[in-house]
Specification:
Layout (H helix, E strand, L loop, with lengths): L2 H29 L4 E6 L2 E6 H29 L5 H31 L14 H27 L3 H6 L7 E12 L2 H28 L5 E6 L2 E7 H5 L3 H15 L1 H8 L5 E15 L5 E5 L1 H11 L1 H4 L3 E4 H6 L8 E8 L6 E6 L1
Parallel strand pairs: 6-8
Antiparallel strand pairs: 1-2, 3-5, 3-6, 4-5, 6-7, 8-10, 9-10
Helix pairs in contact: 1-2, 1-4, 2-3, 3-4, 6-8
EC number: 4.6.1.-
Protein name: Adenylate/guanylate cyclase domain-containing protein
GO molecular function, one term: lyase activity
Length: about 350
């Protein structure tokens, strides 16, 4: 399954769950403590059990979630290069039309259950108080959902919940696989492209990296200039050789877009990587700008392994401890050195090229 499909499915099911809960909350606020609702229309009184409105909320939530996810995915592609204000205006218009449509269908459902004729013809929504209450609630709920998505994008998939519940308020020791990715010949490329085009070049490269992360259960710890630090927990990092397959997938993605990079920048991006794993400390830092920080020797070691790539003329180097965790044949790796002394470390490591 492609990374794009995985992202869509996460948004799809997340949106459905969120909007079902949101509309149930709306109905709970509206009908809390009531067993029935009386509707006065055309000199008649119609009585509905409030359970019927909760059923409507579930149908509304599922339908809204499906359409919301589709609109978000389409809007991200169509409005990718539009100003933020114009994007918000366009999406808001679509959501307004969506709400008119959904509430019209909901009234039809209520009509069928109660065998009545509600005033829902033509521009019924312009003077309907329930509709505008629902619109206000929808705007608030939609804003909350967008803020959650922004927070998830900011902190990374899975990290948002950890920060929300305060998991890393105190330092916590964990074991992770770390990959340091760095652009080859970055200085020369930056000098020829200039700062603006070089920034666009790096932006395109990391966008392509993002597109393969989900497929291999990887997360980005941070971007630093032309370098990205990718990490896994131990289980996901070595499952199916994910830490190696991610790098291969990234290389293939860049190779597939070789013509694009050559035409736009006159350069083909080539990355080098070093992988190591071990225990490190994870802690939430900062007040005005919160983020998760990794501390530990494994970080320095992974970075220094990556720095050896140029000297060995290899794109991917791993430590012996990583190699021992991988399920690969001898033909797929090569011992580069049995006695590498990393700068600032007394420990000597065996380094392998994959």
């Amino acid at each position: 399954m492609s990374s794009v499909m995985i992202s869509f499915l996460r948004l799809f099911f997340g949106a459905i769950l969120y909007w079902v809960l949101a509309f149930l909350l709306f109905m709970a606020i509206r009908y809390n403590g009531l067993e029935q609702e009386m509707i006065f229309y055309s000199d008649e009184t119609f009585i509905f059990p409030t359970d019927a409105f909760y059923e409507v909320a579930i149908v509304l939530g599922i339908t809204t979630g499906v359409l919301y996810a589709v609109i978000e995915i389409v809007a991200e592609k169509v409005t990718n290069h539009l100003a933020l204000g114009l994007t918000i205006l366009l999406k808001s218009s679509l959501y307004f039309i969506l709400m008119v449509f959904l509430l019209s269908k909901s009234f039809l459902l209520i009509e069928q259950q109660g065998d009545i004729d509600l005033p829902n013809e033509g521009n019924w929504w312009q003077t309907n108080g329930f509709f505008w209450n629902a619109i206000i609630f929808f705007i608030v709920a939609s804003t909350v959902f967008q803020l959650i998505r922004i927070a998830i994008d900011r902190f990374g998939q899975g990290n948002f919940l950890s920060i929300l519940i305060g998991k890393y308020k105190r330092p916590k020791e964990e074991e992770h696989v770390l990959m340091f990715l760095d652009l080859k010949d970055s200085t020369a490329i930056a000098e020829k492209l200039g700062h603006l085009n070089y920034s666009k070049f790096i932006q395109d490269c990391f966008t392509d990296l993002d597109r393969v992360l989900n497929k291999y259960d990887a997360k980005v710890y941070q971007y630093v200039g032309d370098e990205a630090v990718v990490f896994w927990n131990i289980k996901n990092g070595f499952k199916n050789n994910n830490c190696i397959l991610l790098f291969n997938a990234f290389e293939k993605k860049l190779a597939k877009k070789k013509k694009y990079y050559q035409k736009k920048y006159d350069f083909e991006p080539i990355f080098k990587a070093g992988i190591h794993f071990g225990k490190l400390t994870v802690v939430e830092v900062g007040n005005t700008k919160k983020e998760l920080a990794f501390h530990g020797d494994v970080i320095n070691t992974a970075s220094r392994i990556q720095n050896l790539c140029n000297g060995f003329n290899r794109n991917l180097l791993v430590s012996e401890s990583v190699l021992n965790k991988l399920n690969i044949s001898e033909s797929h790796y090569e011992l580069m050195s049995e006695d590498i002394e990393l700068r600032g470390k007394e420990e000597r490591l065996k380094i392998y090229a994959i």
